[in-house]
Automatic annotation (TrEMBL):
One of its GO terms (biological process) is phosphatidylinositol phosphate biosynthetic process. Mg(2+) 2 binds at D93. Keywords: Hydrolase, Magnesium, Metal-binding. GO terms for molecular function: histidinol-phosphatase activity; inositol monophosphate 1-phosphatase activity; metal ion binding. It comes from the Bacteria. InterPro entries: IMPase, Inositol_monoP_metal-BS, Inositol_monophosphatase-like, Inositol_monophosphatase_CS. Its EC number is 3.1.3.25. This is Inositol-1-monophosphatase. CDD domains: IMPase (cd01639). Its cofactor is Mg(2+).
Length: 274
């Protein structure tokens, strides 16, 4: 395909994202059937990477840039961004939930988002695809086009009193941040129905999107963790805020729009935010 024939219509980008994410999910699924070992560590000794994280990202990068050579690409395992000229940037987590993948806990995902550059040097997420590898469930969204699970529209839960909300969270790979997160969880736990740590930021946000939890809050997440799934959650009726957390790192707070403010206030009072 020549670059002249490449369009940036969300529907076309979504079709490509889905096709490539399915291929990557298949690669990850097959790799899990064999032996999985740690290939390296990153930000700390518990922040691991496997050969499959790298192979999944290489496949996604190769397929996307072969179809759209003028786009930019940011993948977790690639380190730096590849800069293109089309105004479209792909943001990819080749396995979100690597620790689950390593231990064979069937809860990890391939996440692919497409962002369109704006005139102010920022960008708007216009396409998001998250595939739950073990179950094969596909979450997808386009900006303004709604969110789906396996092709069917999804929506968030109705607002519930705080004491009846099921909250999802996650823990950073940094021991310092974990200390702060543990204290915040201890303060929030008596005030809500319960708290779960499932191990994939992308699937946590998709769970809020489909009404499978009432809220999500986590400090220390990176753009590839939430780029695709935050769009899915927003399009399903959640409000998703990206701000600074108690230790100065990025924090994501997500909840159904109705009732978001009450959850945010609780997250601040619990110490998730500075
Ligand atoms: C991690 C997962 C986890 C979250 C961490 C992320 P990775 O991503 O999303 O749930 O708590 O903050 O880094 O390392 O498995 O791609
Ligand atoms: Ca991740
Ligand atoms: Ca990852």
């Amino acid at each position: 395909m020549t670059s002249a024939s490449v369009t940036s219509r969300p529907g076309d980008l979504l079709a490509l994202a889905l096709e490539v994410a399915r291929e990557a999910a298949e690669l990850v699924r097959e790799a899990r059937a064999g032996t999985v070992e740690v290939a390296d560590t990153k930000s700390s000794d518990v922040d691991v990477v496997t050969e499959t994280d790298r192979a999944s990202e290489a496949l996604i990068r190769e397929r996307i840039l072969a179809a759209r050579p003028d786009d930019s690409f940011l993948g977790e395992e690639g380190g730096r961004s590849i800069d293109g000229s089309s105004g479209i940037r792909w943001i990819v987590d080749p396995i979100d939930g690597t620790v689950n993948f390593l231990y064979g806990i069937p809860h990890y995902a391939v996440s692919i988002a497409a962002e369109r550059a704006d005139d102010l040097g920022g960008g708007e997420m216009i396409v998001g695809v998250v595939i739950d590898v073990a179950s094969g469930t596909e979450y997808a969204a386009t900006a303004g086009g709604g969110a789906t699970r396996d092709g069917r529209p999804i929506g968030v839960r109705a607002e519930a009193p705080l004491a009846e909300r099921l909250v999802l969270t996650g823990f950073s790979y940094s021991a310092e941040v974990r200390g702060v997160q543990a204290a915040a969880v201890a303060r929030m736990l008596p005030k809500v129905r319960d708290i779960r740590r499932l191990g994939s930021c992308a699937l946590d946000l998709c769970r809020v999107a489909e009404g499978g939890a009432d809220a999500y809050v986590e400090e220390g997440v990176q753009v590839w963790d939430h780029a695709a799934a935050a769009l899915v959650a927003r399009e399903a009726g959640a409000r998703v805020e990206l701000t600074k957390g108690a230790t100065g790192r990025d924090v994501v707070i997500a909840a159904p729009s109705s009732g978001f403010a009450a959850f945010r206030t609780l997250a601040v009072a619990s110490g998730f935010l500075g």
